[in-house]
Write a structure and sequence with these properties.
By secondary structure, the protein is an all-alpha fold. Helix content is about 65%, strand content about 0%. It contains four helices and no strands. The longest helix has 19 residues. The protein starts with a helix and ends with a helix.
Length: about 90
């Protein structure tokens, strides 16, 4: 057993002690499969994909705006473009 697998097990135990369900599934070849929240993982995956697509828009990725409302409107415009280009 290597160092990484011990650290992963330690992290999962730490989460379980605080009543937090892990949302990342274990590897398929793992013998003992710890529980995870599949619906939370699916939602997390969608959010990560959307933020990765927003990073393609340089203005959103580097945040050149001074005001929060201007930055949020740039995110809305970029997200709507990404949404309509993927359909």
């Amino acid at each position: 057993m290597d160092h990484q697998s011990k650290a992963k097990r330690r992290n999962r135990l730490s989460l379980a002690e605080r009543n937090i369900t892990a949302c990342i599934p274990p590897k398929k070849n793992r013998k003992s499969k710890p529980p995870y929240n599949w619906h939370l993982y699916k939602t997390r995956h969608l959010i990560e994909n959307m933020s990765a697509k927003l990073k393609d828009w340089q203005r959103v990725a580097t945040r050149y705006d001074r005001c929060a409302h201007t930055f949020m409107s740039a995110i809305h415009i970029a997200a709507s473009f990404v949404f309509y280009l993927n359909e």
